[in-house]
Amino acid sequence: MPDAPSEPRPTSLYRVAVPLRWSDMDAYGHVNNVEYLRLLEEARVEAFRAWFGNHDPVLGRGVLVARSEIEYLRPLEFRHAPVAVDMWVTRLAGASYDLGYVMRDPESVGDQVYARAESTMVMYDFAGARPRRMTPEQRETLGQYLGEPVDLRRRR
Predict the structure, then answer these.
(1) InterPro entries from the entry (predicted)?
(2) Using CB atoms within 10 A as the burial measure, which of 9, 110, 114, 137 is most buried?
(3) DSSP-assigned beta bridge partners for residue 115
(4) CA distance readout (Å), 93 to 9, 64, 65, 106
């Protein structure tokens, strides 16, 4: 499958190295498509810790995944080297934002791109059971990673 003609140029890109697990493989010997979402989740949790600190107000106060869209570009076989997940913010709104991802080889391994994805995150008040607006501090932090939308095929 073809790669995107160009990769996004966010203000600041955050890269997370996510280890693969033997149990991520399916019967075909490659990382199962469902596990890609888990790898993105692990990258997202690490990014939130780095962006917002150890006492993460985003995860601590509540954030939900409202949408995930992923394009699988090539099979990812199990290996001991981690997969790199590049992340950035593609949209900021009052109570939600979109995160873009590119799952690729780390530079020390190669230059393959395995998937592109985007998730819509919603700030959520669990006590009130409703979305909540993000704080000015959260908006400022997320704005540091603002970039172009992910180049998904359906948008071309």
Answers:
(1) 4-hydroxybenzoyl-CoA_TE, HotDog_dom_sf
(2) 114
(3) 72, 103
(4) 20, 15, 15, 31
Instruction: Tell me the pLDDT of the chain averaged across its residues.
Output: 87
Mean pLDDT of 150-154: 89
Sequence length of the chain is 156
DSSP character string of the chain: -PPPSS----SS-EEEEE---GGGB-TTSBB-HHHHHHHHHHHHHHHHHHHH-SS-HHHHH-EEEEEEEEEE-S--B--SSPEEEEEEEEEE-SSEEEEEEEEE--TTT---EEEEEEEEEEEEETTTTEE-PPPHHHHHHHHTTB-PPP--GGG-
CA nearest to 4, candidates 113, 88, 99, 84: 113
Question: Which residues, other chains included, contact 12 with Cβ-Cβ below 8 Å and sequence gap of 6+?
Answer: 88, 144, 145
Confidence of residue 5 (pLDDT cuts 50, 70, 90): very low
